[in-house]
Amino acid sequence: MLTLFDLLQLSSHQFAPEKCKLHLARPNDNGEHPLEVFKRGEFDEWQSLQRKRNFTRPFVAALVIMPGAKWLFAGIYSVDGQPESVPGARGTEFKYPLTKLDAAKAPSGRIVVEYDYRQRQSYPYAENHKDKLVVSEILSEAPSISDFKGFRDVDISLLDLQVIFNRSLPDWRAALSSVKGVYLITEPETGKAYIGKADGIEGFWGRFATYAKTLHGTNLGLIGRMEDIGVEVALNWRLTILEVVSLYASEKEVITRENFWKKVLMTHAPYGYNHN
Fold this sequence. Notes:
- It is a single chain.
- With 276 residues, this protein is of the alpha+beta class.
- The chain has two domains: 135 residues, no CATH class; 115 residues, GIY-YIG endonuclease (3-Layer(aba) Sandwich), CATH 3.40.1440.
- Helices cover 28% and strands 27% of the residues.
- The protein contains nine helices and 13 strands.
- Strands 1, 3, 4, 7, 8 and 9 form a six-stranded mixed sheet that branches.
- A hairpin with a 2-residue loop joins β5 and β6.
- α4 crosses α6 and α5 packs across α6.
- The model has no long low-confidence stretch (mean pLDDT 93).
């Protein structure tokens, strides 16, 4: 059973658990999801600003919550001195001088740890949890949002979709606004799916905006499923585009193609989440 700290200490003996605090990064009160922040490439700056003096040891091992009781290792950081007191929205905050360190055996953004951690404390001492931080996967590359490559290549999570909309990525917006069509949302854990249509004047971009905001897109089947499994798991649902039609196609034409795909892929309840 390989743990995160096995890999960290293979990288350097200085990364002893007794010298580290964990940062188990979860969504904050502002609704910011740390995995979204990481994919934007802004995690280091985001982490450095704290409401309390949380980093009281030489090193911080940061992990970002993922769906399914998993955590992405964001990196190991040195704490380079005392924090600076800065004004924040809710009073004084603390800006820490942090430096991301190289850990050859535990590359940042690629180690996935499985740990069903449910305690409120987000900054525990590492030695109390080191044996439970079991490595479940080593990714080939760190999660990020790539440039739009084509409609046939759209295969993203709903968390990725939120990043795309929050940043209003111009290549994605231009492409998704240019066509209507039919899309598929799949739940990886069960394989069950929902098929929907984008038939408004803003094409896929206009329809997907609702999913970026709500995750369920106001669809009854997805709303019911989200109530069962929770938002964190729903962020892992996959979105892909099945068929593209002209932005000037009629509503009837789009509905016909939507019904075709519902029939072919058998997404009506109870096999899927389509209720009509």
